[in-house]
């Protein structure tokens, strides 16, 4: 993952933020914690995007130029040899960015369905007769 997954530049999602003041009515329902859970999901999502961006910027600005300058593109090496060729700082930084990105993306993907289920339950209970979208990561 650290070296095989290409850099992915993300779009700007600054405007994809929930306005929690508009959700204050939920606080007086049977689901007051839902606002907090949505806030946590928002933070997880933002961290996932930031980790993808940080890894991609590092790959494009530091990792890829080293591969090009040293003629290492599209070549395979044992891990220890690759670490020597890249230098420990670049190797470890790339590995750590990838590990962090994976953790944030998986964490978001794992928790989001449960929070969505709670939002849907809330909507169906508080607004009977209305239709709500269902969503699945599968």
Care to describe what's here?
The protein is mainly α and 138 residues long. The chain is 61% helix and 0% strand. The chain has helices spanning 33-69, 79-86, 88-126. It is elongated. The two termini are 22 Å apart. The mean pLDDT is 88.
List keywords for this structure.
138 residues; elongated
Task: Give the topology.
Blueprint: H1 33-69, H2 79-86, H3 88-126
Helix pairs in contact: 1-3, 2-3
Average of per-residue pLDDT values: 88
**Helix content, binned percent:** 55-70%
* Protein structure class: mainly alpha
Largest sheet: none
Quaternary structure classification:
single chain
H/E topology pattern: HHH
The whole-angstrom Rg is: 21 Å
Shape: elongated
Number of strands: 0
Poorly predicted runs of 5 or more residues: none
Given the structure, what is the number of helices?
A: 3
Span from first to last CA? 22 Å
Quote the beta fraction: under 5%
Short note summarizing the structure:
The protein has three helices and no strands. It is mostly helical and 138 residues long. The protein is elongated, with a radius of gyration of 21 Å.
């Amino acid at each position: 993952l650290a070296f095989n997954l290409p850099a992915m530049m993300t779009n700007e999602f600054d405007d994809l933020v929930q306005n929690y003041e508009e959700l204050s009515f939920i606080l007086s329902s049977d689901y007051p914690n839902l606002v907090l859970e949505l806030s946590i999901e928002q933070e997880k999502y933002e961290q996932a995007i930031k980790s993808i961006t940080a890894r991609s910027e590092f790959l494009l600005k530091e990792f890829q130029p080293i591969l090009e300058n040293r003629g290492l593109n599209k070549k395979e090496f044992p891990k220890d040899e690759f670490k020597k060729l890249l230098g420990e700082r670049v190797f470890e930084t790339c590995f750590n960015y990838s590990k962090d990105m994976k953790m944030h993306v998986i964490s978001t993907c794992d928790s989001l369905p449960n929070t969505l289920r709670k939002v849907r339950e809330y909507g169906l209970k508080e607004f009977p007769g209305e239709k709500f979208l269902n969503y699945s990561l599968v």
